[in-house]
Amino acid sequence: MAIEERRTTSGNNGFLYFAVGALIVAVGVLAWMFYNGESNRSRSDTALERVADSVGDAARDIGDSAKDAARNVPTPQPTPAPAAPPATPG
Predict the structure, then answer these.
(1) Which is nearest to 16 in space by CA: 28, 24, 27?
(2) Rounded mean pLDDT of the chain?
(3) DSSP letters spanning 41-56
(4) pTM of the entire structure?
(5) Are 46 and 38 in contact (CB under 8 A)?
(6) d(Cα 48, Cα 39) in Å, to the nearest integer?
(7) Rounded distance between C-alpha atoms, residue 53 and residue 35, angstroms
(8) Between residues 47 and 21, the one the model is more confident about
């Protein structure tokens, strides 16, 4: 009778466990970077929202300045009529 050896290897799934663990760590790091440690941050506190408000305020100020400049343009004075040519003796 032949004796059959049974070998059980548990190292077949080692790389799979490593890859899954690395993915879990990567997702955790990305989540921490995205939330930056703050979970309750309002939309108005974001940097993009502050920049958008600043750009809007600057555009409004420029528009107001343009309106003021248009209102304060002096009306041109009429030019005097040309002088009559001198009379020629004759």
Answers:
(1) 24
(2) 81
(3) --GGGSHHHHHHHHHH
(4) 0.33
(5) no
(6) 18
(7) 22
(8) 21
How many whole angstroms separate alpha carbon 84 and alpha carbon 9? 119
Closest CA to 64 of 75, 72, 76: 72
Give me the half-sphere count of Cα atoms (radius 13 Å) on the Cβ side of residue 81. Answer: 3
Q: Cβ distance 49 to 43 under 8 Å?
A: yes
Average pLDDT score over residue span 54-68: 87
Tell me the two tokens of residue 63.
Answer: 């528009």
Amino acid type, 89: P
- Residues 50-64, buried b or exposed e (16+ Cβ, 10 A)? eeeeeeeeeeeeeee
Q: Which two tokens stand for residue 24?
A: 């879990």
Average pLDDT over residues 15-32: 93
